[in-house]
Every structure is written in structure tokens, then in C-alpha cells.
Amino acid sequence: MARRKAAARRRSSPRGIKLLNVAEGFVQANIVTQTLMDVDPIRFLVGDAGPTLMVGGGGISLLEIAKRPELLTAIGARAMNPENIINIAVKSAVANVSFRLAKRALRRPVNLLNRQIFKPLALGVRL
User: Fold this and answer.
1) Counting C-beta atoms within 10 Å of the first and last residue's C-beta, which end of the chain has fewer, N or C?
2) In sequence order, what DSSP letters do the residues of the chain get, joined into one string?
């Protein structure tokens, strides 16, 4: 007699936030906002009200775009420039490969930190 198939195991999705993935997303966002709007992602979202590492303006924030929609044409012109597109693509690919290699190289220390520090604290955050 043929064996019956066992019920498929249900896998739960991870419920925590991975800090390395957040950092990679920030780096990718920084590449795009720096190239197209001359500003970092935090300053793009909050404008001049947020914490700044640079002194002075010159960048385009989301609030400025809402006030002056004609800035979208300037951003569009920068986005259509082939040099900027290639620049974004190359930087993005390098950042992606770098994060993959770093995650692979630091797998054991990261697992150790997650197991001994983050899991007992039950913050819902992992490295």
C-alpha cells in the first residue's frame, strides 16, 4: 500500500526587523536621493527640520516639491541624464554585492549577537 503524504508544514514569516536590511535600504535610498536631489534620505523626507550632517541647503526636499511642483521637471531632467542613470546603477550594484558579501562573511558573529543579545531582550529586532 502506498504511503500517504504528510501534511505540509506551515512556515511562519519572520516577525522581527533586520537591522542590516534597514541599513541596506537606507544606502540604496541615499544613492538615489543624493544623485537626483542632492540631499540624503532623511533630509529629503523631513526637510530642514530634521537632523543634518551637512551645513547649508541646496537639496530638494519633499516639502519643497509639494510647495513648488515645477521642481519635478528638474528632478526628471536629472533622472533622464544617462550619466546619472549609469551612476545610480553602478553604485547600487556595488552596494548590493557589498552587503551580500558582508552578510556572508559576518554570518557567525551576527548569529552570535542575535542569539545572545537581541533574542533575550525580545525587542523584535535582529542584526
Assistant:
1) N
2) -PPPPPPPPPPPPP-SEEHHHHHHHHHHHHHHHHHHHSS-HHHHHHGGGS--SSSS--S--HHHHHH-TTHHHHHHHHHH-HHHHHHHHHHHHHHHHHHHHHHHHTHHHHHHHIIIIIHHHT-SEE-
